[in-house]
């Protein structure tokens, strides 16, 4: 909660379709790369919109896909 206390809002939009790097349906795992555009509205001052690219591993458990590992890069 404290990490977001400086924001009024943060628009987080997926850019295009996610790229599936590896999928193994038999084992219920996948590795995915996705690009996002973020537009922050801060309470004090201003912050420019920025883009990020995230890569994450998914695991199917009891019919639900869970994010297991997640890494991201920010582009200014």
Structure overview:
By secondary structure, this protein is an all-beta fold. The chain is 0% helix and 74% strand. The chain is built from no helices and four strands. It has strands spanning 7-24, 29-42, 50-61, 64-75. A hairpin with a 2-residue loop joins β3 and β4. The protein is elongated.
Distance between the termini: 24 Å
Q: Rough shape?
A: elongated
User: How many whole angstroms does the radius of gyration measure?
Assistant: 15 Å
Largest sheet entry: 4 strands, antiparallel
Helicity level, as a percent range?
under 10%
Strand order of the largest sheet: 1-2-3-4
Question: Which regions have little confidence, pLDDT < 50, spanning 5+ residues?
Answer: none
Query: Pairing-aware structural class of the strands and helices?
Result: mainly beta
């Amino acid at each position: 909660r404290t990490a977001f206390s400086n924001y009024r809002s943060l628009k987080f939009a997926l850019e295009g379709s996610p790229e599936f790097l590896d999928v193994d349906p038999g084992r219920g795992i996948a590795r995915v790369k996705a690009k996002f555009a973020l537009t922050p509205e801060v309470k004090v001052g201003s912050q420019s919109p920025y883009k990020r690219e995230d890569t994450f591993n998914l695991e199917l458990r009891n019919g639900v896909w869970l994010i297991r590992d997640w890494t991201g890069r920010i582009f200014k």
